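Think of the structure tokens as a kind of shorthand, similar to the way a musician reads notation: each symbol stands for something richer, in this case the local conformation of the backbone. In the example below we present two proteins back to back. Begin with the first one, reading the sequence and then the tokens, and try to describe in your own words what changes along the chain.
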Amino acid sequence: MAKKNKKQQNLGPKSNFKRNAVISQIVKVFEKTPESEFTHKQICALIDAKDPASRQVVFDGLQNLSANKIIARSNHFTFKLAGDENSIQGIVHMTQRGAAFIIVDGREKDIFIAPQNVSQALNGDLVKVRVFKEGQQRDEGAIVSVVERERTQFVGTIQMQDRHALLIPDNHRTGVQVYISNEQLNGARNGEKALVKITVWPKSAEMPYGEVIAILGMPGSNDAEMLSILYSQGINPVFPDEVMSEAEHVPVDLDPQEIARRKDVRSILTFTIDPVDAKDFDDAISYEELGNGIIEIGVHIADVSHYVRPGSAMDKEALLRSNSVYLVDRVIPMLPEQLSNIACSLRPKEDKYAFSVMFKMKEDGEIISEWFGKTVIHSDRRFSYEQVQEILEGSPGDHDQILRKIDHIAKKYRAKRLKKGALSIESEEMRFQLDDKGFPIQVLIKTSKDAHKLIEEFMLLANRTIATSLSKPQKDRDKIPLVYRVHDQPDPEKMAMFAVFIEKFGHKIDLSDSRNIAKNLNSLFDSLREENEFSLVQTMAIRSMAKATYETENIGHYGLAFDYYSHFTSPIRRYADLVVHRILQTELTDKKHRYGSELSDVCKKISKNERKAAEAERESTKYFQTLFLHEHIGEEFIGTVSGIAEHGMFVRMKDNHCEGMVAMNQIPGDRFYFDADKYRIIGAKTKKEYNFGDTVKVRIFEVNPRKRQVDLELVL
């Protein structure tokens, strides 16, 4: 025992210096005074490395940094910071454990940052990094400075201390604890949820200082939780005064002079098909028989570009938001309601400005010619999807013969797409029936039926037609800048994992020829359409695919099997469509395109905000799932193993479609562990296995709406 104490005494209090932590400290010393030179001894003194073991670690760190050209020897004894060309800028992606990966444009390998080297960087920040270790799979480095903050506002719960308060963030991966003086609480009380803005973060401080800028209410109320979700994603539910002022001056009545400049199609039968609770009607369909077996079908899109001018307050705010956000109990629109629900919305029995694509075609859908341009339309009828579906299934109704003719054409277009290699994905959406107080009383799964597919096919046709017209190379025409909606080919590793997944259900898929993956997936979906595992298999297939994004360089759309594709049909709720409207109108008129290199930045921004909106929508669904399941604690359900991880398995319950987790250490009967090679959970002694797709019985054990967490236990 005495020997151990002597060893501890010799090593001193700093003997547990870790190599990576020391390297980060050394780099920070040089970064603080970039022009200075330091000896090994000076560095040891500055970072308090007093004992021989720690000084040796510092010496090794200096050698490492010198070998990687992060610092340079001034002479035999002194070192200085190498030139700035050795630093790299990238975006921080934090992990739950406090480490980070730096994503750098144009660089194949990510840079791993250990927790002790993250410094004051937060998720999404643009940072400067110095790499001190290169590896085959990834490099390792340290963050030396924050170039630009992704956000400075965070949501969390106020926790009062003796003489100050702390903000405890809702999400520790994307947030940070913030010190708040009593003077900066602005009325916030202990336990309340609040939005806090960072005001300063001294280099010597462990946490930033901030002030409360909005009180969201006590945790547990729907309003407080939904606002927390929105603000956590950087989505502001309130429009600035300047934007609202512009919106209030938007006229509802149409200008006769503007009507005269447009193609007037108000006399043609026109109708909308939307969800029963929709208020923002982006698109309408028109139908006219021209004789000799020729018809004309028009796709009419709300002309948002007429009202929202480039550089206006509404335009800047629309870009900042990039899209509308659809939570379970509310919509956060991209544009103020004066536009999204009134002026632009193609409401029934009202004249509206539109941007239209008109197709002359034979009755079998063969297109003879197409026209696009500004129009004025009049919607004669508003249909819900349910009303149209009843008509398509044989019930009588308004314009039933016309709807069936259009549906017949839509089915032909869909079959043609699938034959060309498009993926046959049946969209599925979890919805909730809410009572008068906003509490979920039933879980509903909305699936895509023929009425949805009818509209989808004509929207796809319009989007593809516009993209092809603007993109296809033509003689004597320069390349037109455009926002493409692109979808890359599947990643082989992810598809291989998907193959392992479906093997658990007794199915196989041929992945040997990348050109036939979509065809083989469609065959798999067709064979499973009536099986219980269909939804789960399709969901896993979607997760195995690349994510569609907005880009200025076209690579086509794999999932749709289109060579050219853009978004044109939803400018009320997507900024990308508004930009495409402007580009098309410019090409139709003066051909003086205003967009240049900045269009790439627009694409990055709207793609990023699309992901934020999707995450907010997922969080909203998770929250309402937990509210619903909270009333069923202790009840037992049959479910399917829908996910497997090191910490347990996810189970999707059959009756309510909700998902929860059985923790690994809570699986009874053995000590279970995750077998990464065969992607299964297996018992150490009994060798009992749990695989994807297994049917199990579970009991709802605990539900935490604040954490969006459902804990299940197995019933054997």
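Once you have a description of the first chain, move to the second and do the same.
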Amino acid sequence: MKKYFTLILTCLFSICYSQNSITGKVTLDGKPFEMVNIYIKNTTKGTTTDAKGNYTIRNISKGKKTIVISSVGFTTQQKRVNFSKNNNIILNFKLQEDNTNLDEIVVSGTMKPVKKLDSPVAVEVYSPTFFMKNPAPSVFESMQNVNGVRPQVNCSVCNTGDIHINGLEGPYTFVLIDGMPIVSGLSTVYGLTGIPQALIERVEIVKGPASTLYGSEAVGGIINIITKKPSSAPLLSIESYASSWAEINTDIGFKYKFGKTDGLLGINYFNYKNPIDNNNDGFTDLTVQDRISFFNKLNFKRKNNRTFIVAGRYVYEDRWGGDMNWQPKFRGGTDVYGESIYTSRWETFGTYQLPTDEKINLQFSANGHNQNSYYGDTFYKADQYIGFGQLTYDTTFGKNHDILMGAAYRYTYYDDNTTATGSETNNEPSITHLPGIFIQDEITLAPKNKLLLGARYDHNNVHGGVFSPRINYKWNSDNNEDVLRISIGNGFRVANVFTEDHAALTGNREVIFEDELLPETSWNTNINYVKKIITKNNTIINLDASAFYTYFDNKIIPDYETDPTKIIYANLNGNSVSKGISLNTDITFSNSLSIIAGATLMDVSVTEEGITERQLLTESLSGTWSVSYKIPSIDLKLDYTGNIYAPMDLPLLGDNDPRSPRSPWYSIQNIQATKRFSPTFEIFGGIKNILNFTPASNSILRTFDPFDENLDPENPNLTFDPAYVYASNQGIRMFLGIRYKLL
């Protein structure tokens, strides 16, 4: 009797817990790919691929099962498999790059990886392919074809600039690399230059305040540059091109192993030493530049695939602009006018997952920025050091609550030779402590409805506490062809004028602070609607429309007009509003033609003492486009990219200023042809700025007297002024380059 009982139990056990298993390999372009998620749908069974791309799942019950593979940046694949008793099935997968918007993985909206479709926060994603349509030597310049985003040149002489999102200036844009802040006032100018583009996996953009998660500076939006995983990067990648202006840009990426650690090294080098003065004003149209950047990323192997990633970047740049006769020996003198900037910047950041059953991550970043500059004979020397640490806890509560909570601390040290950090006899570096705590709860109200609630509290040792709440709602249709997102959020920012606004240093205007500058605060609401249409002839149309409204208190706006000889900085005694609508379209035809186009209509105004005026250097309408066509028979791709901007109000030096008070309609357009000779080698070339648009030749006022030694007694306010700027003086040019990958 006992034997029969044992036999029955054995049979039951073998039925419930069979020895069925599945093994296989995941590859990309014939190479093994690790850290790919493999799981059985509607079960808890799953694993990830190892360094050789292999995976195994054991003890699978009998029946038909759906095997799913997923990885960030690649299409999710499913295969149906029928398991009978004691089967060992071999199933291999080939990864395919994800080119559909809704399946892309994003992290910027909620600080953790989710499909773009599932994110309650509207996130725009741009792949390297998008930026290759119009190659540029920096991410800063690459942004010119993103709808609602405008690279703004802030100085006609030194050519430094920042990124405007929906009409808000660069200091309101929060820059991250791999989700970690490289935040600082100086990063708004230099944070987007010198990043080796060969290592960029994608760029995520969030428009509107994100202070709930990221704290101060995330008022206007986020630009998050996601770099490649060492495991997925090619062994070697090279992109290099030269222009007819004698610009040379080279990006090199190299993957390596150091024991069990995967490494990724990137180098960017940009050189331009050919001063040109096509507008005949006696000054350089483009600054002479020599820049080199190193980037290194290490992925350490740990038990249970826990995360430990450390990365670092170093940038050095020497640039000058000014009188065509300027030489380094004139630096800081009054014989020949020049603006010379030496910049040395380092950054490090990383993520360490604690060895606990719960998902707890320690994230950190630090950066140091040293600048030695002369604007004519005005010396500016600044040192800035920032340390940031953050502990996050990612968990679930019940079936419908996905919770992220954390604590953060930021230390900022800033010292320069201006009155911002003391007087002539007493140096007082600015030191800021900014601890904060935050929490967000992503609530699944129904299978197609999500609600995100978030709140953050920061305490600035100078300005006190700041509370930042937000709420986001998302609905999508059953077929995922319609997605609606609604958001309301609060943002705050503490300004440092000298690091953010080079107009305060360049030229001869006197800088005046009316009072101590208080933190800026804003409220933002955004409605986003996404529609996907597939026509009968397999044309795919993606529509992405948004309406936005941002209201500012205490906004800091430089006043150029009250006194033409001064720039007056003060908190606005009133309010500022940025509102508008935008539309992005992405159309893919079945005949190898694709079109990406967008337009933004906005009104950015300032109201003070009952008077409302448009904000300076803000366009009311902008548009971008990218038209691509591939000729498969000869493997040739043609790209036509461009943008257009409506007139914007410009800062003048009073009523007698001879320059136009408004910029004209202008458009920068480019064409490119790319010939692919193999999956690893291609040649590209084209023409930039084919309309040869440049601002008026008198944009820099009185270049003949940059030190104001011979002012007109009848118009003494008309001084040398390079702050009247809205676009680059660089005209039409040809370019030719190569791309090579060793897999």
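Compare your description with these statements about the second chain. Helices lie at 2-16, 128-132, 139-142, 187-190, 211-214, 497-500.
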